[in-house]
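One record is given unchanged without comment:
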Amino acid sequence: MLLLGIDDAGRGPLIGPMILAGVLIEKKEENKLKALGAKDSKLLLHTQRMKVAKEIEKTAISHKVLLSTPEDIDDAVTTVNLNTLEAIKSAEIINSLNNKKQKIKVVVDCPSVNTLAWKNKLLTFIKNPENLDIYCEHKADFNHPVVSAASILAKVRREEEVEKIKKQYGNIGSGYPSDPVTKEFLKEYGKKLQDSGIFRKSWATWKALFPEDKKQKTLSEF
């Protein structure tokens, strides 16, 4: 049997992309992931994540990392919702990594409070589910090493993208609305860089500073 874990990074920030990653392994390699130190990416230092990510890529049969830009996210928020975008991207990973032959246990770290409804939505985007056993769980990255591995790859890619933004535009902080550095960057440069593609303009923090943009959505609504 094969195991496929899927997780996201950067769902909540105001600045930069959201990343989804999938890691496909032989079930027998699960203990190796544990030995490598694959755990929730937030529990590792950046240098640890970088090191473990390289080992995960060597251990995995395959992996896939997808990026959703702030524009993609704003479009989803104003037309469907962020959970639907995650379902679409998760299905894209599953469809890409599914060999349609071997049995695959798929575990997705569910972004919705309603795991059953979100799983049903996910299934509508999956092309060949016959060989798949799909599980959607909250905090799956704590309980499944293969999901932890996906979490690490997603977080590392998110950090790479944030560094690119910092090199081009300056210190944006973490990109999260609660970060004082991010707030100051937004106040000082938000209007000037509004067409740069780095901001999620559907976020309440953006709307509070620039209320003329009418498409309002709060984080609590996701």
The chain is about 45% helix and 15% strand. The longest strand covers residues 18-26. The domain at 169-221 is CATH 1.10.10 (Arc Repressor Mutant, subunit A).
